[in-house]
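Schema walk-through. Below, the input block comes first and the output block second. Nothing else is stored per chain. Lengths vary across the set, and this one has 320 residues.
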Amino acid sequence: MSIFDDIRESCRVVAEQAARVRIDQARLEQYARDFPVAEIGAATLDPATHHLGHGKDTLAFILALDAINFGSGYFPHIRKRPGHSGYFTVAAGLKDWFQAEGAPSAARLARLTQGDCARIFGQDLGSPQAGELMGLFAKALNDLGALLLARFEGDPARLVERADHKAEHLVATLRIMPFFDDVAIWQGRKVPFMKRAQLTAADLGLAFGNEGWGRFDDLDRLTIFADNLVPHVLRVDGVLEYDPDLAARIDRGDPLAAGSIEEVEIRAAALHAVELLKQHLHATGHAHITSMALDYLLWNRGQDARYKAIPRHRARGVFY
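--- output ---
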């Protein structure tokens, strides 16, 4: 069984047995019938906030960005750039650092401190939440630098080339780093998500036009990138239903514990719901649609005001 099959099967089991989250099957069928297939377009990376068009430096940028592509549970408490979400604040800060100082060596990544990250991302260490996140960013980048030095002679291109154009192989390499090893425990069962490891393959594909360092022949096997926004969109759209207590906690803005039963059920139910949505769309003649394409559409839908007006779940962890 591939890692992608394992993710799908584990999330199916959780979704079907979950006590706190359920998929409204009738609503899902209607959702599929009304789904705006014509709006599914090619995903892009924003050149204003991503270091694109710089060859190996772009490859290094994508690896570094996805090493720290987490913190949504902290984002309400960090200093954001005007007009930028938490993610785009982080991406823009990393881009500015690359442009000002050049792509950091593996040795430099391995030495970064919490204070370095606060400077790079414009954060105040006087804020407990921002300080904690900057410490986690430093650890994530330290791990990336250490892995590059230990196994790839400090060369990020060697890491990507080792995957031999297979996203599954890239995921296996990245999960050597603890912050990429996105596996929860639910009712004694391991439930892998691998959100950021999968996203790294997808982002490299976008950055390099699915060629060279961006060519992965199994991108169609990726699942959604299970986070807290796609579940939120599915909840607002009526596909996911939360039990009243869980819904009330989220609506109050109470954080969920990372790895808690309810947090795992939300991520798993969203992932499985999108798999069911894809099956409905395939059955009606849209066999080309991938989970990744649905993720991009739903994630971008979540930027609309009506979704932002309602709190989504927050969990302070390192996986999204």
